[in-house]
Amino acid sequence: MVTAGVTAEVTAEVAQEVRLAQVLDGEMTGRQIKAALCLKHDEHFRKAYLQPALEQGLIEMTSPRKRNTLEKIYLALRDLEPRIELPEELRKRALLPLERMLALG
Q1: Total number of domains constituting the chain
Q2: Whether the Cβ atoms of residue 26 and residue 62 lie closer than 8 Å to each other
């Protein structure tokens, strides 16, 4: 037996897939897709649209092994988004040379 809650959840998921399919136009970046969907929150976009579409094979990453590129880092610094997360140990190692440069003035 299907309950109203299950029906509403499935309907919402299908609606998101339809919206995504309507805005896709060739090769697009995540930022372009998010803008085309008129979404503002990165986390909501990733969880509600991007991750489900990737898992279902509706879209694919063009460079799946290369998560952080120089262009992505530049845009992140310029726009203060998306957030780039590093493992804590790597963050600490990267911080040392930056602190040395700042100390030199």
Answers
A1: 1
A2: no
Domain assignment of residue 45, given as a range: 4-104
pTM higher than 0.70 for the full model?
A: no
User: Cis omega before residue 82 (within 30°)?
Assistant: yes
Q: How far apart are CA 79 and CA 59, in angstroms?
A: 25
For the four alpha carbons of 51, 57, 14 and 24, in that order, the dihedral sign comes to positive
Distances 30 to 19, 47, 49 between C-alpha atoms, Å: 15, 12, 10
CA distances from 35 to 2, 25, 41, 56, 75 (A): 35, 13, 10, 21, 15
Burial class (CB in 10 A: 0-12, 13-18, 19+), 54: middle
pLDDT in tens, 56-98: 888 887 766 667 778 777 877 888 876 667 889 988 988 898 8
**Residue 56 CA: distances (Å) to CA of 37, 41, 50, 51, 97:** 19, 22, 10, 9, 42
